[in-house]
């Protein structure tokens, strides 16, 4: 899990989790804590996430936290090893939309 600040009062949240730990409720708990930290302690206005088109589980987690689907980014993330590019969705949550 990481929370990286770009500029101003905006940040991006993302993570990588081994398949051995999928569907155990780990990420919703971790994301909740990151959102609390970002909005309550760091005073962020916006937190966003980029999600690969096929990552249905993360899309559902973000929607449960009231993230809004804001756009579709074609061929957004390209990997130098495989040469393949993935489409990504961008989700955003404003501090006024966050439900503690």
From TrEMBL:
* The entry's keywords: Transferase
Q: What is its EC number?
A: 2.-.-.-
**GO terms for MF:** transferase activity
Q: Where is the N-acetyltransferase domain?
A: 7-67
Is Transferase among this UniProt entry's keywords?
yes
Q: Does the keyword Metal-binding apply?
A: no
Domain of life of the native organism: Bacteria
Query: Pfam families in the record, alphabetically?
Result: Acetyltransf_3
By its UniProt entry, which InterPro entries does this protein fall under?
Acyl_CoA_acyltransferase, GNAT_dom, N-acetyltransferase
What's the protein called, per UniProt? GNAT family protein
- Upper classification of the organism: Bacteria, Bacillati, Bacillota, Bacilli, Bacillales
